[in-house]
Design brief:
five-stranded mixed beta sheet, alpha+beta, 28% strand, 15 helices, binds glycyl-adenosine-5'-phosphate, seven-stranded mixed beta sheet, globular
Length: 548
């Protein structure tokens, strides 16, 4: 396996993503917009394939009559497509209005803003002068960055760097300040020349605000772009129950845009301000919820493996008991070793959370808080609920067992963009292949799982004469209704293979002299490079079988 975490590898992936039309910076001709990304012709197909695979595997293709491995019983799946702007009370009851924030810290000198929990630093001393040097860099870059900053601060030449005395390794600024072992006055901000320029940390709500209506002005017109798709599902729980025949246990799935005004968007599309989520809210009997939680955790883990992510780069991390909300039996994150992270670090692709009855109760009763180990409605100074719920009954009546209860929720919540980024990073390979003269040529190849590959097959006439293009066009037209394919007659066949390898096309079909004689084509496999002859009449069925 390639080195797992490597910035130069990431740089190559980012450059290929732009050169081949996977991902562009949003509004690039105007200098781009931090935290916003556009998908190009290949990228839109890749991301759509990720979302379609998720929808097909979790919802449309789900067998409601079977008991899947690890599941306590059969279950039903259905879907929703909710609006991005919802009633502002939704976010008050869900807790996002009061609690969905990050701590941020400003630098008076550089005028830059940082996420408090993203700053790390270490003590540096030279000839009686001492400073806590911070950096925003992470991974392998963080320590060299503190060295360079301390060297500049103390006014040293490169050969004097060894004179700096270091007071230990990198520590989180947040923790060092909380522990009282440094103050902001001692701290050299990541882009500052002198210590003491960082402000006290402040809360910053991550929801994007907007106004509804032409005459918008007062606070009642304030609305928010949804920071997650999940709440649209909770507030439609009763609608779905009343209008479809679903019975608990069942899941409601939704794919759609979410928006978070991230303080420090970074790492390509990993932390964006506009992104897509693929979320399931699975409603079950409270007594069965622990079993359902384990089922969904394992099922989602296997989904990523089934679509080809390298197992050694994936990690299933169960949250420690101290990290869990008190109503939660378990939460696990599925994480991937992205190349921009330091060796041994992983970034979250998906969280699977046991949420108890927290969400449905919040939308019935009002915003809940924890008091003496119980969830109770939070009250204001007047003793009334701080944020009133809908007052609608969101409980479920089981007409077989004659029980009424508020279902518990298991939430597998995945990021479509993070998933796409992981598939993009994992697919990236560099190797050597023989060229047309048998000499080794280096190639970049995107080894996407065929289901995810933006283009499934390329049809290449060896030369643009002798009737080869006509046969190739017929084959292209026979394949096109079944899968995304491309016809390419431009350049040498070696160059055309190279173009398709970079796009991640699993199969190339070459029409040559022999095709005209025996009605067979060459099928070239992207990964094994094996070339075999296949009757032209069998191509459609053969490739459809491979994709099934
Ligand atoms: N409803 C639960 C929820 O939203 P989350 O862990 O905040 O949970 C779920 O988000 C997933 O959404 C994450 O695992 C990640 O894949 C994706 N996600 C969250 N914030 C993101 C961001 N700023 N940019 C890209 N993807 C993000």
């Amino acid at each position: 396996m390639d080195k797992q975490n490597d910035q130069s590898r990431m740089d190559k992936i980012v450059s290929l993503a732009k050169r081949r039309g996977f991902v562009f910076q949003s509004s690039e001709i105007y200098g781009g917009l931090n935290g916003f990304w556009d998908y190009g012709p290949l990228g839109v197909a890749l991301k759509r394939n990720v979302k379609d695979a998720w929808w097909r595997d979790m919802v449309a293709g789900h067998d409601e009559l079977a008991t899947l491995t690890g599941a306590p019983s059969p279950y039903e799946m259905t879907g929703l497509d909710c609006t991005i702007i919802m009633h502002p009370q939704v976010w008050k009851c869900s807790g996002h209005f009061d609690l969905f924030h990050d701590w941020m810290i400003d630098c008076r000198e550089s005028k830059r803003r940082y996420r408090y929990d993203h700053l790390h630093g270490r003590w540096a001393a030279h000839r009686g002068k001492k400073v806590f040097v911070t950096t925003e860099a992470s991974g392998d870059e963080a320590v060299p960055e503190t060295v360079a900053r301390a060297q500049k601060f103390f006014g040293l030449r490169a050969k004097q760097v060894d004179e700096i005395e270091w007071g230990g390794g990198l520590e989180s600024l947040e923790q060092v300040i909380a522990a009282g072992s440094a103050t902001l006055a001692d701290t050299l901000g990541p882009d500052a020349a002198a210590p003491g320029s960082l402000t006290e940390p402040r809360e910053f709500n991550l929801m994007f605000e907007t106004r509804i209506g032409a005459l918008a002005g007062d606070d009642d017109d304030r609305a928010f772009l949804r920071p997650e798709t999940a709440q649209g599902i909770f507030v439609n729980f009763k609608n779905v129950l009343d209008t479809s025949r679903v019975r608990v246990p069942f899941g409601i799935a939704q794919v759609g845009k979410s928006f978070r005004n991230e303080i420090t968007p970074r790492n390509f599309t990993f932390r964006s301000r506009e992104f897509e989520q693929m979320e399931i809210e699975f409603f079950c009997k409270p007594a069965e919820s622990a079993e359902w939680y384990r089922f969904w955790r394992d099922r989602r883990w296997k989904w990523y493996l089934g679509l080809g992510l390298t197992e050694g780069r994936l990690q299933l991390r169960e949250h420690h008991r101290d990290e869990l909300s008190h109503y939660s039996v378990g939460t696990a994150d599925i994480e991937y070793a992205f190349p921009f992270l330091a060796e041994g670090e992983f970034g979250e692709l998906e969280g699977i959370a046991h949420r108890g009855d927290f969400d449905l109760r919040s939308h019935m009763e009002g915003k809940l808080v924890r008091k003496d180990g119980e969830l109770v409605v939070e009250t204001g100074p007047d003793g009334k609920p701080r944020h009133r719920g809908s007052g609608k009954d969101l409980s479920y009546f089981d007409d077989v067992s004659r029980e009424r209860y508020v279902p518990h929720v298991i939430e597998p919540s995945a990021g479509a963009d993070r998933g796409t980024l992981a598939f993009l990073c994992d697919a990236f390979h560099e190797d050597e292949v023989p060229d047309e003269d048998g000499k080794p040529r280096s190639r970049t190849v995107m080894k996407f799982h065929p289901r995810l590959a933006p283009v499934k097959a390329a049809i290449l006439p060896l030369v643009k004469k002798d009737g080869m293009p006509e046969v190739a066009i017929d084959l292209y037209r026979a394949l096109k209704p079944h899968m995304a394919c491309q016809y390419d007659e431009k350049g040498s066949v070696g160059r055309r293979y190279a173009r398709q390898d970079e796009a991640g096309t699993p199969w190339c079909l070459t029409i040559d002299g022999q095709t005209l004689a025996d009605k067979t084509v060459t099928l070239r496999d992207r990964d094994s490079l094996v070339q075999s002859r296949v009757p032209i009449a069998d191509v459609v069925d053969l490739l459809r079988d491979k994709l099934a």
